[in-house]
Amino acid sequence: METNEILQQILDNQVETNKKIEALEANMEGRFTQVEERFVQMEERLGQMEERIVQIEKRIEQMDERLVLVEGRLDKVEEKIELLTSQTTQAYRDLVEVITNQKEDITQNFTPLVETAFWADKTLHLEKEIYKLKQQHS
């Protein structure tokens, strides 16, 4: 083989090698483009997830605020039940005292009858209030 032929073959091999390198570079660029596109998609999804997390956190805050309000209302209802229970107990005691302290026959003296009816009515009313409150919040 002559030197020119050898040089030509080397040159042809170099051209072939360069073509292969260019094809590999183009292939790698395509892959890099795909990876970049996937990365962009993942960033978009991450952004959406972050937005959802913010929405969920806001909902949790709202639920916490509502819970505080409900607990406050429940405390007020419990206080009212305690007050009504106390008033009912006192009304029963007063009624028993009125009945016990009467010296005359209740049918002959109108004042004790009215007082007895008043305390009985008040006691009944308070019991109804307690029942309503317990039904509403149970």
Q: Could you give a short account of the major beta sheet?
A: none
Mean pLDDT: 85
What radius of gyration results from the CA coordinates? 46 Å
Element pattern in H and E: HH
Helical content (DSSP H or I, runs of 4+): over 70%
Number of helices: 2
**Intertermini distance:** 106 Å
Which percent range describes the beta-strand content? under 5%
What do these coordinates show?
The structure is a single chain. The longest helix is centred in the middle third of the chain and has 99 residues, at 3-101. The chain has one domain. The protein has 138 residues and is an all-alpha fold. It has two helices and no strands.
Task: Write out key terms for the chains shown.
138 residues, mainly alpha, rod-shaped, ATP binding, nucleotide-binding, ATP-binding, ABC transporter multidrug efflux pump, fused ATP-binding domain protein
Brief write-up:
With 138 residues, the chain is an all-alpha fold. The protein is 91% helix and 0% strand. It has one domain (1-111).
How are the SSEs placed, and which strands pair?
Layout: H1 3-101, H2 110-136
Helix pairs in contact: 1-2
